[in-house]
Task: structure prediction
Amino acid sequence: MHPMISVNTLSLAPAPFDVHVDQVVRLGLNAISPTLEEVTEFGSAQARRLLDDVGLSVATFTHRAFAYATPELAKAGRERLLATLRLAQEIQADSITMTTGGREHLYWPDAAQMFAQAIAPCAQSAREVGIKLAIEPTSHLYADVSIAHRLADTVSLAKQAGIHLGIDLFACWMDADIDAAIRAAAPLCAVVQVSDYVMGDRALPCRAVPGDGGIPLGRLLPQIVAAGFNGWFDLEIIGPRIAAEGHEAALTRAANTIRMILSA
Result:
């Protein structure tokens, strides 16, 4: 397997952290990307010991949404993210992946400015401990938890906030300026999330195993590498197709496809 392929535990059936770790080990991969909730429930110190025992790295740590649209939301958002940052240190995560939080009544430029201001103390703390805070592009159907949908907008927002980003190809592969956006994103990129989209799907979640859909991964993944990215390719495949096939079987095929693309 390609040494920089990880599994996001959102791709697995709900289970305790140690069960997810065992599944990733069986897949023969080198890293796991857990959620805040499962590590909190399992215990960060115990999680780190387990990861050391089996030799897994933590590619990224899923925090979900920040919040900033009001002073009260921003204060609570900072407190939550700083707590996540402490846990990320304890489990030795390379990065934290999250969405920005929704903008509520704000116009985009004002929302971007407020987000950057609200997250600034967390960004400074993350820099001090060497953990990358990464926002990711999301479908517009998640506008309640994000203002970053196109990759170019995600790059702009990350630069304004002084943080990193993740490239979730499911959300941005169809951007008209995707090639230029990848080149701009690569220096800030903490993780690349990989899945596929089957044309005609209309309801989320509807991710597919890489190679089963229409995302031109054979072009985009090498392009991301050529732009300078050398980090984790995180398998985030969620939805009824994955459940029907079986999570481990689907992830095995996904890893094999990404390995072949990256090794070509």
